[in-house]
Structure formats: C-alpha cells, structure tokens
Amino acid sequence: MVRTPHQPSTMQKTLGKATSTADRVDSPYSYPDHILDVLVIGAGFAGCYLLHTLRKAGFRTKIIEAGSDYGGVWHWNSYPGARVDSQWPIYALGIPEVYENWSWSEQYPGEKELKRYFRFVGEKLDLRRDTEFGKKVVSAEWDEEEKEWKVKCDDGFLVHTKFLIAGIGFAAKRYFPPWKGLDSFEGVMHHSSFWPEEGVDVKGKRVAVVGTGATGLQIIQEWGKEIGEEGSLTVFQRTPPTAGPMRQKKISKEEHEEMMARLPDVYKQRLETESGFTYTVQTELKMADHTVEEREKFFEGLWQMGGFRMFSNNYGDMMTNRETNEAAYNFWARKTRARVHDPRKRDLVAPLEPLHVFCGKRPSLEQDYYEQYNKKNVDIVDLRVNPIEDIVPKGVLMADGTVHECDIIAMATGFDMVTGGLKDIDIRGSNGELLREKWDKGTYTHLGMTTSSFPNFFFLYGPQGPTAHANGPSCVEPQADWILGVLQHMRDEGLVKLEARPEAEERWKQLVHDKSVVSLRHTMLSSFNGGNIPGKKVEPLNYAGGLPDYISRIWKEREEGLGGFALS
C-alpha cells in the first residue's frame, strides 16, 4: 500500500518549499512517514527540552528514539548500583512545569528514580504524541535541491525534515576491547550499558568486573555485597579510579521545601559556574596562598562536603600547577589508603605515587567502594602487569596464561566518547562525504554544535562543546536555546539553509585546543581526548574554557550576525 504523504504545516512553508511525493521520481526516499520542520534524534534531556521548546515556538517537531521510553542513557542504564553523580537538584530540567511538580528522594538519584522522572517529564509536557520509540536512526542524507534531510531508521521508517538535531549524548557508542573470544564465554556476560532490566543474580557466584571507571566502580560496590560469603568477585583494573566521597543521603521534606523556594535561582546559578554545578573552581585562590596547615584544612573541608568538590571546587591552579595537583592527589591517597587493609590491594587502588595527573581522567564518586577490598572474596588484578589476553569459555585469559574462571562477567569497558555515537550513523552531507569520514581525519565543528558541509544539522552535548566537562542539563539547555533562536531568526528572515564556514570551524578547533593545552589534563591520554580508544585520533574533544565562557561565545556569534555561517 502506498503511504499518503503528510501535509506540510504552515510553519514548514515558511522554511522552504515542501515538495509532495507526486513531484518526485520514485526513490528509497520517496514516501516519507513524516514531513517535519525539525527532527530530534534521542529522547534524553536534550530531546525532551528541544521538543518542548521548539513545539511551543511553532515548529513541527518530533523525536525518534531507539529505546522504549524517555531517559536517554538512563533508559538503558540498569546495571547494579547505577546512579547519577551530579548532586540534586542540578541534574534535572529547568522547566517550571517539571521542577515545580517533582520531588527527588535522595541527593544522588538512582537509575529507577531517574526512569520515573523521565516518564513524568514525558507525561507532564505531553511529549509522547510527538515521539517515535523503538526506532534507531541509521542514516541521514542531505538533499540540496529540496534543502532538507532524508532520515531513515532501521525498520525503514522515513522522515523528511528541514532541520536535523542529534541529541544522543556523549556516551552513545559502547566500547568492547578487540578480544576474539567474547562470544565463546559459557557464562553470562553483559556490557554495563546494555544490562537486563531484571538484573542478574550473583549470590554465591564467581563474578568478574572488567574496568574500574565510574560504571565499573558502581558495579563493584554493589556486587561486593551481593555475592555473599560463598561467592567471589575479581576486579580487572588497568588504572585505579580517583573516587571522592558521595555523601549520599535522603532528602527531607524540609530540605525539599527550602530548595523549591530557591530552584529558579539555582537553575540560573548553574549556568554561571565552570562545570554547571552550584559551585565552581576557586579561580582566585592558589595553593601558594595557604600555609601547609591551611591547605590541609581547605582540603578537609572539600572532602567533608563530598561530591565533586574535591575535583571541581578546588584551588584555581590545581589543573595547571603540578605541585598543587600532586598535593591534592596526596591528600586523596592518604584518605583512601586508610580504608583499605591489605597492603597489596591498597597499593593497587590508591598507589602512593600517582599513575597520572589527579583529575586527568574523569573522577568518580563512591559510598563504600574501597571497603569491598577488605573482603577475602574480593580480589583485584593489575592489568598493567598482566594484561587480559582474551575471553575464553571458562573466563578471563591473562597474558601469562592464567585463566580466572567465572560464571558472570560485567564488561565496564566504557564508550567511544563524544564523537562515537554520531560517527555510528551514516550522516551524509552536501558534498557527499560521511560525517565519520570527515571526523576520522580530525574533529571540526563550529561552536560545538555544527560542522561544515552538513547544512541545517545541529548536535548538543557533543564534540567541542563543554560536554564531558559539564553537568548534562546545564550544557544542553543553553545550546538548545541558542538553536531555537537561530531557527526563529531563519524563519523570520525567510532563510532555508544554514551551514558552518570551514574557516569558522578551523578557528573554533584552535580555540578548543588553546583552552585544553593550558591544563595538565592535556598531558595524558583519556576519554577527554579519545585516548581511551585504540586507533582513535587523539585531540581535545571538549571545550575546556568553562560553561559561562562558552555560553558567552555562542551568543556573541548570534548577536553579531552569525558570521561563522553561510545563510541562504
């Protein structure tokens, strides 16, 4: 049966001619299921905020989401102990209709509460009528003649849209090390990002966790308790995480009411701090301003407050002065080592000498992670000394020939961060080149939201934006507001095409580089620069100049006439 094409909206007509399928030569793109002004890929914070704001502004907008509900990464995150490490109330949308009618139960919500929150957002903002679930976008091709994107899903679902916005986040593509025997394992194995919602029973089982980043840490923290006395847990660690105290606690009714009165100001304040929290790096305070005694008192204060304060509320020169950085590490190591009894395990999880710059890799938060290593049935393997050779039917094969037999393996091996998810989609621009082909040679964007030769295409919380250096909603909302402003400007002026100029993205790439090289973080390989993925080009992937500076720059571009773009 031939589909009848949807009639173009009034708004769409102002954005350019909407050609009916009768005027076209039949092709795989001839019969769209939807003809839109804006299509958003992904139903996390970015997708929900964009759909709500764009619809209010009169744009015919829809979301396509691979999962079955809202939440983005939190729709998929069901691994043991999964919870956010951004503190209440900043990890939420600053939309009054939402925050005035929602209350959180604890400082750092777990995945189940976050799933409930996103379901509430979907219902409260009436998003479901404009969301297509269970569809994975596999390709998008720019049609220069029609000035629109032809977007296809894995089930053949087709959308024609004037503007395409990717809100897929920075952790959309999971990473597996290139071990040949992954499929040979006879037990149960799951990647942390695709964990069965019903969970995995580990009581009395021999379990293994590969990886000790933020996710691996949370799994280890839970499994150390869940295996019981009869089970065993083996942790395979390459680099110890630098984890600070979470200081998790329930939120009282009084605390909730007090916060509700301040929330509008809190959501403004988070845009004025470097990482989008309610606190920031103490730029004017250097370690040299303090005596040794004052320094210890200062560190102790941050430690007791918990959260990311030890990392993001510290001395202004912690990431530029090695002496300050080492002093912060030494304080962390003293605090952490005191909690681990076994000398061998202690030296592996909190070595006296740092293996890399403190906070050079993304820090984590923990509740009782280090205490798990005081249990006789929890062990740790140093992959720097004895790397994993392969996964075999019975378990994990090491380079020295040892096989660690196990029943269940959690692969907490991370993600191809920031660019991986976008490069996974066949996005073909105006010159016929795929986005992955362009970015494999080096990542180029303008303002961390657009890239040349890909007209009318935007992305949020992606490459060369604040992204991994910022709280998610704090980064997403200003970017979405900027995109909305640009689309309104184009509508008002009768413009149908916007494309970043190559020279503008050259300048932006240089700025991203300049903001990164001043930090000690630039001296090492990490997910911040693609160094966690073998063969990936090493380059700064995030804007490290802080959220306020970034917001100022993107709006300056808008106010000065969008000179970095060609508009027609």
Automatic annotation (TrEMBL):
<dbReference type="Pfam" id="PF07992">
    <property type="entry name" value="Pyr_redox_2"/>
</dbReference>
<comment type="similarity">
    <text>Belongs to the FAD-binding monooxygenase family.</text>
</comment>
<protein>
    <recommendedName>
        <fullName>FAD/NAD(P)-binding domain-containing protein</fullName>
    </recommendedName>
</protein>
<feature type="compositionally biased region" description="Polar residues">
    <location>
        <begin position="1"/>
        <end position="22"/>
    </location>
</feature>
<dbReference type="GO" id="GO:0004497">
    <property type="term" value="F:monooxygenase activity"/>
</dbReference>
<dbReference type="InterPro" id="IPR036188">
    <property type="entry name" value="FAD/NAD-bd_sf"/>
</dbReference>
<keyword id="KW-0503">Monooxygenase</keyword>
<feature type="domain" description="FAD/NAD(P)-binding">
    <location>
        <begin position="37"/>
        <end position="260"/>
    </location>
</feature>
<keyword id="KW-0521">NADP</keyword>
<keyword id="KW-0285">Flavoprotein</keyword>
<feature type="region of interest" description="Disordered">
    <location>
        <begin position="1"/>
        <end position="23"/>
    </location>
</feature>
<keyword id="KW-0560">Oxidoreductase</keyword>
<dbReference type="InterPro" id="IPR050775">
    <property type="entry name" value="FAD-binding_Monooxygenases"/>
</dbReference>
<dbReference type="InterPro" id="IPR023753">
    <property type="entry name" value="FAD/NAD-binding_dom"/>
</dbReference>
<keyword id="KW-0274">FAD</keyword>
